[in-house]
C-alpha cells in the first residue's frame, strides 16, 4: 500500500513528502486505515522506531474539526523527550495544514507558559501523565470535546508508575472518545487498562507479540563479574565506529562506568535521573551531534531518546524487567537499519538470557569478548578504511612529500602497505597483545535454573522465606501462583524451593527479591487462613544454615527444626 492509497488529505501527503517518507511502515499500513475508516478502539503492539507516531498522528490530524476550540485529541506518553518529539513530528506532518495548534505538556518545566498556551486554544495535546493530571486538577484543561486518546508506550507509562494519573485523566475524557493504545509489550497491567478503558478494541500486532525489532541481532558474552568493565572497553575498541548506548541498572553504576570510560579516553557521558534537566538536555544534544559516541544510561533516563542510527546497545547489566530489554534493544535497528544488542553477563546469569529468549521468542547468540589480537586487527582495518577515505589538505604535506617519497624510493605499493600495517600492528600489539582472554563459560546449562541455596544471596539468587509450609498445604505450584498473584508488574524466576512443615524457603534473582517482599507487604493476602508474609531468609553462615536446614529436613536437632516438629504435632 502507498501513502496515496490511504485516504490521506493532499496537505498531509505534502507533509509526508517533505519528510521523504516513501512507503508506509507496517504499523502505518495497519493503523492509518483502521483509524480513518472506523471509530473502534485499537490496541497496537509495536516497538519504538517503527513509525508509530505517523501511524496515529496522520489520521488524528486529518480528522480534526475546524470549529472546535478545545482539545480534540490527547496523546499521552511516558517522558518529556518523547512528548517533545511527538509534538515536533506532528508539526512536521501538519506543515502544509493551516492553523493546527499542537501543545506539548510535560513536567520538569515551568507550567505557566503551558497553561497560557492551553487557555489560548489547542487542537492536539501531547502530554506526560503527571503534568497533565496536575493541569486537570487545577481545572485548566477542558477535555469535554476530546474525540481521540492515544496511550503511547503504555507499558512504559505503567512501568514508571503513572497508573493513577492515567486513570484520573481518562476519567475526564468523554466515554465516546476513541482510545488508541500503543505498547511494545503487553504485561498484565496494560491488558488491565485495555479491559477497563477500551471498548472491544481491535488488536493489531506488528511483528511478534513482545518481540524485539527484526533487524536487531541479540548477542551475549560471558565474563567474570569483575571483568565486565574491561570487556566493555574491548567491545568499544573492537568497533571503532560504535555509536551506542551502554545500559546500566543503577544511577551509581551509570555514573561510575561513564567516569571510568571518560578517564580511559572514550567519548562517553552518563544520562541518569540524578542529573538536572539542563544537564540531561546538554548530554542528549552532544550525543545527537555525535560529540559523545557512547551514552551510559539508565533505562528510565534513556526513554524517549530519539536517535535512529545507533549501531550498538550494550547491556552492561541486564534489566529486571523484560519490557526494559525490549525497549533497550529497540533503540537500535530503527528505521530499517541493522543493529546489535550485546549483553555482558556473568557465569551465573545465563538463566536471564534464557528467560528473555523464551519470552521474546528471540535467539541470542553467544559471542566472545574480543581478544587483544582481534582488537588490533579491527583497529587496523578501521585505520585502513580511514586511510582510504581521507582527502589530504594541500599545504604542509605537499611540502614534505618529495622528501618522504625519496626515503621510500623503490618500495612497492604493497610492500609500503605491509610495512605501514606492521608498524601500526606492533604498536597496538604492544598495548593489547598480552591482555588475557576474558571469556568464560556460563555455569548453568541452557534451560536449567541457577538457583542456589545461599541464603544471603551470592549476587544472583537470594533466598526468601514465606510463613507457610506443608502444614498449610503449600506446594511449589501454589507458591508460584501466590507470587504471580501478588502485586507485581513483572514475572519472577523462581529457583530452588524447599518446603518444610511451617515455612518455605525459595530462591529468586537478587534483583527481584525486594520487589517480591514489597509486593506482599503492599497487598496483604491470606493462604489457608494465614496472613502471608515473605522475608529474606536469615543471615549468618550460609553453610551452617544449610546444615541446619538439612537437619530439619531429616527431623534432626537444631533449634528451629525442633520447634517445627513440636508445633507440627
Ligand atoms: P517513530 O516510531 O514514530 O518514532 O519513528 C521512527 C523513525 O522512523 C522516525 O525518525 C521517523 O521519522 C521515521 N519514519 C516514520 N515513518 C516513516 C516512513 N514511512 N518512511 C521512512 N521513515 C519513517
In short:
The protein is of the alpha/beta class and 569 residues long. Helix 3 crosses helix 4 (80-93) and helix 16 crosses helix 18 (413-432). The chain binds adenosine monophosphate (AMP).
Q: Please mark out the parts with pLDDT under 50 across 5 or more consecutive residues, or reply none.
A: 208-212, 444-459, 539-569
Gross geometry: flat
The number of E-state strands comes to: 20
- What is the rounded Rg? 28 Å
CATH superfamily of the largest domain: P-loop containing nucleotide triphosphate hydrolases
Biggest sheet statistics: 7 strands, parallel
Protein structure class: alpha/beta
Strand order of the largest sheet: 3-4-2-5-6-1-7
User: Any idea what the CATH architecture of the largest domain is?
Assistant: 3-Layer(aba) Sandwich
**First-to-last CA distance:** 74 Å
From the 3D structure, determine the CATH topology of the largest domain.
Answer: Rossmann fold
Q: Mind explaining what this structure looks like?
A:
The chain is flat. With 569 residues, the protein is an alpha/beta fold. Helices cover 43% and strands 15% of the residues. The strands form four sheets. The chain has a seven-stranded parallel beta sheet with strand order 3-4-2-5-6-1-7, with helices on both faces. Bound molecules: adenosine monophosphate (AMP). Residues 21, 24-25, 28, 48-54, 308, 334-335 line the site of adenosine monophosphate. Adenosine monophosphate (AMP) binds at residues 21, 24-25, 28, 48-54, 308, 334-335.
Amino acid at each position: 500500500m502507498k501513502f496515496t492509497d490511504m485516504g490521506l488529505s493532499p496537505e498531509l501527503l505534502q507533509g509526508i513528502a517533505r519528510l521523504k517518507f516513501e512507503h508506509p511502515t507496517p504499523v502505518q499500513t495497519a493503523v492509518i486505515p483502521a483509524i480513518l475508516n472506523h471509530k473502534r478502539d485499537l490496541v497496537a503492539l509495536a516497538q519504538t522506531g517503527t513509525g508509530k507516531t505517523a501511524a496515529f498522528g496522520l489520521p488524528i490530524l486529518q480528522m480534526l474539526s475546524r470549529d472546535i476550540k478545545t482539545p480534540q485529541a490527547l496523546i499521552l506518553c511516558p517522558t518529556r523527550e518523547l512528548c517533545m518529539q511527538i509534538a515536533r513530528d506532528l508539526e512536521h506532518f501538519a506543515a502544509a495544514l493551516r492553523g493546527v495548534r499542537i501543545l506539548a505538556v510535560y513536567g520538569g518545566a515551568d507550567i505557566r507558559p503551558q497553561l497560557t498556551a492551553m487557555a489560548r486554544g489547542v487542537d492536539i495535546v501531547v502530554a506526560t501523565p503527571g503534568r497533565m493530571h496536575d493541569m486537570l486538577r487545577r481545572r485548566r484543561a477542558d477535555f469535554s470535546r476530546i474525540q481521540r486518546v492515544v496511550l503511547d508506550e503504555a507499558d512504559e507509562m505503567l512501568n514508571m508508575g503513572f497508573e493513577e494519573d492515567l486513570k484520573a485523566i481518562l476519567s475526564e475524557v468523554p466515554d465516546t472518545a476513541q482510545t488508541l493504545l500503543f505498547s511494545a509489550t503487553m504485561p498484565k497491567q496494560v491488558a488491565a487498562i485495555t479491559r477497563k478503558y477500551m471498548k472491544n478494541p481491535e488488536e493489531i500486532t506488528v511483528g511478534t507479540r513482545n518481540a524485539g525489532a527484526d533487524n536487531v541481532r541479540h548477542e551475549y558474552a560471558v565474563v567474570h563479574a569483575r571483568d565486565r568493565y574491561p570487556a566493555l572497553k574491548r567491545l568499544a575498541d573492537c568497533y571503532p565506529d560504535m555509536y551506542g548506548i551502554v545500559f546500566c541498572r543503577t544511577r551509581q553504576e551509570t555514573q561510575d562506568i561513564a567516569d571510568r570510560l571518560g578517564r580511559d579516553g572514550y567519548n562517553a557521558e552518563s544520562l541518569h535521573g540524578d542529573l538536572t534537566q539542563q544537564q540531561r538536555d546538554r548530554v542528549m544534544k552532544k550525543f545527537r551531534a555525535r560529540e559523545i559516541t557512547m551514552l551510559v544510561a539508565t533505562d528510565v533516563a534513556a526513554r524517549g531518546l530519539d536517535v535512529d542510527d545507533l549501531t550498538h546497545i550494550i547491556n552492561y547489566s541486564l534489566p529486571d524487567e523484560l519490557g526494559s530489554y525490549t525497549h533497550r534493544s529497540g533503540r537500535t535497528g530503527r528505521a530499517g537499519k541493522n543493529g546489535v544488542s550485546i549483553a555482558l553477563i556473568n557465569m551465573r546469569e545465563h538463566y536471564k538470557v534464557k528467560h528473555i529468549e523464551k519470552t521474546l521468542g528471540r535467539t541470542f547468540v553467544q559471542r566472545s569478548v574480543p581478544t587483544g589480537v582481534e582488537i588490533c586487527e579491527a583497529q587496523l582495518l578501521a585505520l585502513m578504511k580511514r586511510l582510504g577515505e581521507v582527502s589530504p589538505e594541500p599545504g604542509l604535506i605537499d611540502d614534505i612529500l618529495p622528501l618522504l617519497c625519496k626515503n621510500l624510493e623503490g618500495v612497492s605499493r604493497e610492500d609500503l602497505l605491509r610495512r605501514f600495517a606492521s608498524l601500526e600492528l606492533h604498536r597496538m600489539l604492544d598495548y593489547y597483545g598480552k591482555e588475557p582472554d576474558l571469556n568464560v563459560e556460563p555455569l548453568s546449562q541452557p534451560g536449567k535454573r541457577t538457583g542456589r541455596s545461599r541464603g544471603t544471596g551470592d549476587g544472583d539468587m537470594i533466598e526468601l522465606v514465606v510463613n507457610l509450609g506443608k502444614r498449610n498445604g503449600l506446594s511449589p505450584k501454589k507458591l508460584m501462583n501466590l507470587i504471580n498473584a501478588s502485586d507485581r508488574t513483572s514475572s519472577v524466576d523462581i529457583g530452588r524451593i524447599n518446603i518444610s512443615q511451617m515455612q518455605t524457603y525459595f530462591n529468586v534473582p537478587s534483583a527481584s527479591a525486594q520487589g517480591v517482599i514489597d509486593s506482599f507487604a503492599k497487598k496483604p493476602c491470606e493462604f489457608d487462613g494465614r496472613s502471608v508474609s515473605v522475608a529474606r531468609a536469615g543471615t549468618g553462615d550460609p553453610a551452617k544454615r544449610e546444615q541446619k536446614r538439612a537437619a530439619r529436613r531429616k527431623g534432626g536437632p537444631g533449634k528451629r527444626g525442633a520447634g517445627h516438629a513440636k508445633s507440627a504435632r
